[in-house]
Write a structure and sequence with these properties.
five-stranded mixed sheet, 4 helices, alpha/beta, two-stranded antiparallel sheet, 150 residues
Length: 150
Amino acid sequence: MSDRTLRDFAANTPMPEMGDPPFTPLRRPLSECRVAIVTTAALHVADDHGYTPDDASFRVLPADRRDLVLGHWSPNFDRSGFVADLDVVYPIDRLVELAERGVIGSVADRHYAFAGNQEDTLSAIRLDHGPAVAAALRADAVDVVLLTPV
């Protein structure tokens, strides 16, 4: 499949109406906030199972793990940035540096990854896996989520 074919397919794929995205102002200064990453880079730790096509589930990424695997299925996906520097798709080391400098309060112990290739309605993420990750983030006392769409 050519790049043009994929671009045309994506441009003409109907998407569900999501409404205006919710925004919640910070309840405390950023220097006191706990930050987590949620990425669509299809990352998983090396000893965890990978993603399957149309896999809407998520993987937990422990903050101390760097042995991550990129699980994208598309042969058209450019992996060179990830290979050169994990922080291109999962900026965990940059968050650690920000916490050390006092810019953010702390880095969460767990972060979350989804695969970016999803079915058209996104229903499994909207109704099941997304709320599960949101509950886990709340349980971890996360104040701010850094989304890295890949």
